Amino acid sequence: QVQLVESGGGLVQPGGSLRLSCAASGRTFSTAAMGWFRQVSGEEREFVAALTGGDRTSYYGHFTKGRFTISRDNAKNTVYLQMNSLELDDTAVYYCAVDSMDRGSSDYRDYDYWGQGTQVTVSS
Predict the structure, then answer these.
(1) What is the pLDDT of residues 1-55, one digit of tens each?
(2) Are 15 and 82 in contact (CB under 8 A)?
């Protein structure tokens, strides 16, 4: 059974940093795209970043503006999201996801597996 478990969320002041991790189990995703999305209650799930498995191409949501970096460690079956210069509007639940077709898509409907989410709160 596939499981994705996020960690690393929490409360941070504006301008601070957090590093999210997502550990996958149940199968190996070295050739799949892994991505991050976020969601504020009552709003649509928003694309944050994705990293393909085959050619290791990264994609980012427009709002990240160079502040976020996605990376992965296939040996650990884990994807990371380094978030710097956090802003109040970055407050959301962050989800990791896997796209078995390795598309690096920004459309959440293209992703097969999802984690349970981790809360990120940016507040002074």
Answers:
(1) 889 999 999 999 999 999 999 999 998 888 999 999 999 999 999 999 999 998 9
(2) no
Query: Where in the chain does DSSP place strands (E)?
Result: 3-7, 10-12, 18-25, 33-39, 46-51, 58-60, 68-73, 78-83, 92-99, 113-114, 118-122
Q: How many CA atoms lie within 13 A of 117 on its CB side?
A: 13
Q: Which residues pair with 66 in a beta bridge?
A: none
Residues with Cβ < 8 Å from 98, sequence gap 6 or more?
A: 2, 4, 24, 29, 32, 33, 34, 35, 111, 112, 113
- Three-state secondary-structure class, residue 63: helix
Strands 10-12 and 118-122: parallel
Q: DSSP 3-state assignment of 79?
A: strand
- C-alpha 7/C-alpha 94 separation (Å) is 10
